[in-house]
Structures are given as structure tokens and as C-alpha cells.
Amino acid sequence: GEAVFVDDMPAPEGCLYGAFVASPATHAEILDIDFAPALRIKGVRDYFDYRDFLPRLEDKAIPTENAYKPFTSGEASSHYHCIGMVVAESQALADRAAKLVKVKVEELPGVFTVDDA
Q1: 111-117 long-range Cβ contacts below 8 angstroms, 24+ apart
Q2: CA distance 59 to 38
């Protein structure tokens, strides 16, 4: 047999693509997220982050105890910690738009040893 990879398959009509918005700091409090510049690009459909999941978490549609949270809400605990996602009509557009999302953070002290952890 021969392996078929997702990148080798044609995209279905109307397919959308996503690009993650990541924390610019290793350990930081997230103060503000401005995604408006990303949405101004033609072909960018939407941006979403933890706020889009809050109603589902609050009404218990998603169990909150030990629930996997795809996006951090207040504190990034690692470099490139996922903050949100831009959705666009092509991967190139999504990647470009994700770089335009402005994430304002206050850097917090890092933890660099096992003893500090």
C-alpha cells in the first residue's frame, strides 16, 4: 500500500483553515487581545478564544473539572501557549492574520528549576 497524507488530498470546497495565536512570552498575564486588525483582511472569517467557550463551560455542557481547555484565559504558562485561533479561507491568510493579533502581556517571573516548580 501507499500512505495518503492529508496535505496530499484536495481540500473540500468551502474548507476553512486555522492558525493559532500564541503567547509572546514564556510566563505572562494576558492583559488584552486585539484581534480587529486580523479581521480586516479580506478572506479572514473569524477569531475565537477562551471567551467563546465560557457559555458552554458555565452551562455545564462541557465538564469543568479536569476539562481540557484549548486556549489559555488569563495566564500563559509557556512560550507559544495557545491564546486563540484565526480562521480564514486559506492557510496563508490565516497565518498572516494570526501575526496581526496584538496580545498585550505583563511578563511574570519564570520557573527554571525543579526546586522552583
Answers
A1: 111/27
A2: 30
Task: Please list the alpha-helical segments (H only) found in 13-112.
Answer: 36-39, 54-58, 91-100
Query: Would you state the cell numbers that stand for residue 80, as one nine-digit string?
Result: 507559544
CB 117 within 8 A of CB 111: yes
Question: Cα–Cα distance between 111 and 109 in angstroms, integer?
Answer: 7
pLDDT digits (tens, 9 = 90+) for 7-66: 888 888 999 999 999 999 988 999 999 999 999 999 999 999 988 877 666 666 555 555
Alpha-carbon distances of 107 from 25, 28, 51, 104, 116, rounded to whole Å: 7, 4, 22, 10, 17
Half-sphere exposure of 43 (CA within 13 A, CB side): 16
Q: Cα(113)–Cα(43) distance, rounded to whole angstroms?
A: 44
| pTM above threshold 0.90 | no
Task: Give SS3 for 21.
Answer: strand
